[in-house]
Amino acid sequence: MRAENAIIVEPVARLIEELSKLPGIGPKTASRLTFFLLRAEEGQVQALAQALLAVKEQVRFCTRCFNITVAPLCPICQDTNRDQSKICVVEEPLDVLAIERTGAYRGLYHVLHGHIAPLEGIYREHLKIDELITRVRSEPVDEVVLAMNPNTEGEATAFLLLRDLAPLGVRVTRPARGLPTGGDLEWADPETLGSAMQGRREL
Amino acid sequence: MRAENAIIVEPVARLIEELSKLPGIGPKTASRLTFFLLRAEEGQVQALAQALLAVKEQVRFCTRCFNITVAPLCPICQDTNRDQSKICVVEEPLDVLAIERTGAYRGLYHVLHGHIAPLEGIYREHLKIDELITRVRSEPVDEVVLAMNPNTEGEATAFLLLRDLAPLGVRVTRPARGLPTGGDLEWADPETLGSAMQGRREL
C-alpha cells in the first residue's frame, strides 16, 4: 500500500478510513462511497454531515424504556392510549420498529441494548435488565413479552430474564416459533420445522 | 409506514434518508448504520462528519489530469520522476489507484470521469476528452494507453478516443485481454477465453 499512500490525498484517505469503521463497510465499499461523495453535490454531502451531527446532539434514549427519542420519554411511552399492562422486551431499537410495523402489538417496550454474550464480554450488567425489573415492580404490568432474536444469544438472554421475572408474578410470554409466511416447508431448517410441528394449532 | 413515521424521531429519520442516498445503501442498511452510529462514541461520529466536510472543502481535481488532489496538480503530475511520455487514460480516479497498486506503470494518467453512455445521457462533451487531446498535442507524449473498463461502454469510449488520437501520430495501446490470474479456464466466459486464445504468446 506504499504507492497508494503517496497518491491518495489526505482528506480522501481519512474519509475512506472513517467510512471503513462502519459495520458491513470494508475498505473497497468505503473507497467507492468516498469517490461517489467527491463527485456528489456539495449540498448532499453537507446534509449528510449535518444529519450525523444532529443525531448525536439531539437523540437520546428514553428514560423509561431506552428506545430512541428526542424528548425525555419516547413517543410510545408518551402515548397514553398504549396498553400500559404489557412490556415487550427487545434487543435493539430497530426491533421496536419491526414490531410496530406489524400493527399486532399495542403495549409498551423495553430495549435491552444488546444480548448476553460472555465471549464478546457482554454480561448482564451491560444490558438494561435491572431497569426492566424495576419497571415490572413499579408499573401496573401483567405481561412481559420476551421478543429477543430467535438465536443462541437471544435464547440465553430470555432464559436469564425468565429467571429474574418468575418471582415477580407476571405472565412471561414469547412470540410464537414456526414456519415463516411465504416460506417453503421443504427448505425450512429442522429447528424451525420442529418448532412449527410442536406448536401446531387446531384449525 | 404510518406507524413508523410516528415513532421514528426526526433526526434519526433524516440520517436514514441521507444514508439511503448513497450508492449500494438501501433503507435497511441505512437503518442499521444509523442505529450503529446512535450508539457509537460521539468522537467517531464527529470524525466522520468532519471528514465528509473536509473532502468537499479541500479536494479538487488536478488541472492537468483530473485525478483527485488538494493542490492544483495531483501528486502524480507533480512527480518529475514519472515517465512524461506516457498517458494512461482511465474512467475514474479509483482506476488510477488500481493501476498504481500493480507497480507496473510509471507514466502519467488522464481521468475521463466516466464513459460514453448515450442511453444515460453521457456524451463526449461530458468527459475530459478535449482536455486529453490538448495534452497530447502540447505535451511530449509518445504513447496513450486506453485503460477503460473492459465492457461495452468502455469499448465504445476507447473506440471514440482512438478515432480522435489516430491523426495525432501517437502510439495508442490497450491493456492485454486474457484469462485472469488465478481463474479457472473452464469457467472463463467465451469472450474472455476468445481474447486469451487470440492474444496467445510464445513461451
Automatic annotation (TrEMBL), chains A, B:
Keywords assigned by UniProt, alphabetized: DNA damage, DNA recombination, DNA repair, Metal-binding, Zinc, Zinc-finger
An annotated Gene Ontology molecular function: zinc ion binding
Residue ranges of domain Toprim in the record: 85-180
Classification via CDD domains: TOPRIM_recR
Chain intervals for the UniProt region annotation (Disordered): 180-203
Zinc fingers (C4-type), renumbered ranges: 62-77
GO BP annotation list: DNA recombination; DNA repair
Function (record text): May play a role in DNA repair. It seems to be involved in an RecBC-independent recombinational process of DNA repair. It may act with RecF and RecO.
HAMAP family xrefs: RecR
Protein name as catalogued: Recombination protein RecR
